[in-house]
Amino acid sequence: MSGNGLKVLVVDDDKFLLDMYSIKFSEHDFTVETVSGAEEALTRIESGFVPMVCLVDIVMPGMDGLELVKKLKARADLANTAIIILSNLGQKDDVDKGLAVGADGYIIKATATPSEVVAKTIDIAKQKGISF
């Protein structure tokens, strides 16, 4: 599977995970930007980076991922961006909350290998109508 330059923004406060997902998505020809928090994600987007996919953790210092998803979904320039929550919070209630704020998909970190995260991301992006 190749993303053919698909632009991905990964938002997580765990540097190890940012590095790991950056490597894994890059192996699939994705252009990857990583940021360590919600405010940094908004700044990156406001400076002109328009990702085709945003992977957002929920538990982060400052603004949490649910609030970030709401803000991303409200932006007209991201109308065609797939917003996916990538979190260790895996209870049904957590997933329901994530989808209720507008996430296009929800991936539980603890139950998905990095390769599975890439595959699920591609599937969700295709469901959103993003072509490769």
Q: Summarize model confidence as the mean pLDDT.
A: 94
Q: Which secondary-structure class do the elements indicate? A: alpha/beta
In order across it, which strands form the biggest sheet? 2-1-3-4-5
In angstroms, what separates the terminal alpha carbons?
10 Å
State the order of secondary-structure elements, H for helix, E for strand: EHEHEHEHEH
CATH architectural arrangement: 3-Layer(aba) Sandwich
**Which residues sit in consecutive blocks of at least 5 with pLDDT less than 50?**
none
The percentage of residues in β strands lies in: 15-25%
Overall form = globular
The total count of helices amounts to 5
Say what the CATH topology is.
Answer: Rossmann fold
Q: How would you name the CATH homologous superfamily?
A: Response regulator
Per CATH, the class reads: Alpha Beta
Helix content: 40-55%
Rg estimate, integer Å: 13 Å
How many domain regions?
Answer: 1
**How would you sum up the major sheet?**
5 strands, parallel
- State the total count of DSSP E strands: 5
Topology:
Elements: E1 7-11, H1 15-26, E2 31-35, H2 38-46, E3 53-56, H3 65-73, E4 82-87, H4 92-100, E5 105-108, H5 114-127
Parallel strand pairs: 1-2, 1-3, 3-4, 4-5
